[in-house]
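Task card 7
Instruction: Convert sequence to structure tokens.
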Amino acid sequence: MKKNLLLLAIVVFLAIIPLFIQKGAEFEGADGEAEAAISEIDANYEPWFESLWAPPSGEIESLLFALQAAIGAGFIGYFIGLMRGKHKEG
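Output:
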């Protein structure tokens, strides 16, 4: 139990400390960085395709991203628990 709490504290510390070290920094996603790099290399570059649907706002986009992450984490947690349970049985 102490080991889990220590690991949790380390994860929280690693997630929060950059916010204090880099005050006022913009933490953007990789998509915007990639788009800027491509534009810098070739200003005439045109994407191969467009998105089928664009979320109406940044908040909706963030919600969908968080939902995707939660579903993935739930699946991984379920799978690990299932495998651990099978390992304990046999």
